[in-house]
Amino acid sequence: MQTRKIGPFEVSAIGLGCMNLSHAYGVPPSAEEGERVLLAALDAGETLFDTAALYGFGANEQLVGRVLKPHRQRITLCSKGGMGGVKGDDGVVRRVIDGRPETLRSNCEDSLRRLGTDVIDLYYLHRWDKKVPIEESIGAMSRLVEEGKVRALGLSEVSAATVRRAHAVYPIAAVQTEYSLWTRNPEIAVLAACREIGAAFVAFSPLARAFLTGVLTDVSSLDAKDIRRPMPRFSPENYTLNLKLLPPFEALAREAGCTPAQLALGWLLDQGPDIVPIPGTTRVDHLRENLAAADVKLDAAVIARAGELINQSTVIGNRYAAQATQEVDTEEF
């Protein structure tokens, strides 16, 4: 497995986003199936594992911690705080963004317990709580580093301006945001800000939440609780239009001798040695297909044509619905 740098860590060029083993895309796989995926990733040479307190309201951290604890020294373990599940007076657990120092400390300590580890290698602020100055949240997280509970800090879904403000308080090792052929927002300013401060860029949803794999052809089949349902790009009318982009993209992948997913990941890897994609999957065969993308050789013409086929001008629909858009701090087209 090829490697790339994130702060002090040398990690596999493609990491594993663990979210959908417990969260987001309808009914998650069983714990046994999740364990198979995690161990297959480890056996294949994957060393970067990304989870969060939010995913399954702690269930994902428990799964990752239980399965990977015996292999802790072989991996770079990443988690996130500042957004999680909070039980209301009605007994219902709801997602809450909270960047207060006392909450971030509590989040981190809870994550350490669920993960079964003494230290989290890379700890992200999952969302910037705009009611709390970013300097205050990062200051609190820096104290977790000083106490040995965290080794490096990261940010998720933030603008270039916020990256710089946070880095002025404490060095930021990584910024994580959605980035793929069909989501180019980081190219506006965040990628440049990361390179300016020396932070790696970790790309989540690099396969466009399955669109770029070519396997999701009917959004009506999505589970009622699937987080893609309210996303404008996945509305039936918009998705029908977006599907027209796939045949020429699939033809280009065949020409290049790879799968559509490998072409999408190869394009992303080609955007810079500081970019680390973290595709998620619930299937071992898809995991191996994704990891093989690191060894696919794509010429410049194929990379250019892929970018011309699928980009911010050819994709129909916004990335998030209105409410979710308000919760992120990223530049939008």
UniProtKB/TrEMBL annotation:
SUPFAM superfamilies recorded: NAD(P)-linked oxidoreductase
Keywords: Oxidoreductase
EC number: 1.1.1.-
Residue intervals of the NADP-dependent oxidoreductase domain: 13-308
One Pfam family linked to the record: Aldo_ket_red
CDD domains (UniProt xref): AKR_AKR13A_13D
Top EC group: oxidoreductase
GO MF annotations, alphabetized: oxidoreductase activity
Name of the featured protein: Aldo/keto reductase
Species of origin: Variovorax ureilyticus
Lineage: Bacteria, Pseudomonadati, Pseudomonadota, Betaproteobacteria, Burkholderiales
